[in-house]
Amino acid sequence: MRFGCFISPLHPPGEDPNLLLRRDIAFAELADDLNFDEFWVGEHHSAGWGTITSPELFIAAAAERTRRIVFATGVMTLPYHHPFMAAERAMQLDQLTRGRFILGVGAGSVVSDMHMLGISVADTRRMTAQSLEVILPLLRGEVVSATEDWFELHDARLQLRSFTASGVEVAVASALSPFGMRLAGTQGISPLSYVAPPWGAPRAGHGLALDRLAEQWRHYEEAAASAGRTADRADWRLLLPVHVSTSREQALEELYEGWLYQREHLWVRTMGMPMATSGVGARKAFEYTVDAGGIIAGSPADCVAAIHRLQESSEGFGCLLLSLMDWAAPEQVHRSLDLFARHVAPVFRHSAVGTTASNTWAAAHKDTFQQANSRARDAAVRETTAVRAD
């Protein structure tokens, strides 16, 4: 299994945005040092919480400070960009990072962004599909002409080619609707699923996206089959908040106040989402989401067990992205990532198999080894005594 970090990012308005940007870059450097495979960066333009307006610029800066981690736009909102320019920037980042770039795309979710740009919410999925239909062949080096009601291309071609023979990977985000999964399957690109809403349990009767992961995969598989392709679960990424601490109780204590603040000030007061605002109702929503697996929190052993359950409920996936939601204090997030990298990831990567096997073998033969050591020591003592006697 592969592991990555995902930042929208979502920071409470009022903090110095320059310091927040530099802190997010520091998270990318930390993730690289801790051997995470991927680092995803979002795009937002309004509401004050999302402070990265161009994930491509962020990635260009962060890539120069890292060695091996792969960066991804999480996501580039395609209706906001001319598809030719989106493809050009993706290819340039692929070159700048020497192949360490994934183009993650989606239809967008912040309505105030769409309002400022004069884009109807009802048109975003259509525009995303139309954009991908030209971006993908452009990335393959093809010449493209197309005319839609919001863009035109005439004999368009990219000047740059991919740094690697495999080309630029493209992924589509999917939340509650099957649109993203079916689009990914039809186009033969990677799917990314949001496991659960970050604000906690949704309205009664809606359930968690976690409950429908197997159904999401079936949408992808069916769309891929209809396009003559074979779906591979290794390409499927799942995204949800993960926080590791010394115990489940400590992890929840570190998360709850930040989670509650974001829930009330972003999702309710800013976004206007209908949900319980009382302390009792919010606490129940938080605990329900953790218990249901929509937030993974606890000791390393707790997190290992939760990921195993996620594997079972989804029926298998290739990459888990840890959503860094800015709920815990920065130093607690740093410690969480360190604990995850040292104690959780090795269980699924099998990276510590050699050392644990060697330890088990040595422990199983400790009596034999000690006896041999004692015999050698006794023999050495006898030899020394004999020499002195002479």
TrEMBL record:
Keyword Protein transport: no
InterPro entries: Bact_Lucif_Oxidored, Luciferase-like_dom, Luciferase-like_sf
Keyword Signal carried by entry: no
GO MF annotation, one: oxidoreductase activity, acting on paired donors, with incorporation or reduction of molecular oxygen
One Pfam family from the record: Bac_luciferase
Alphabetical UniProt keywords: Flavoprotein, Monooxygenase, Oxidoreductase
One Gene Ontology cellular component annotation held by this UniProt entry: cytosol
Spans through the membrane: none
Domain Luciferase-like: 1-313
Family the UniProt entry places it in: Belongs to the bacterial luciferase oxidoreductase family.
Record protein name field: Monooxygenase
Organism from which the protein derives: Streptomyces caelestis
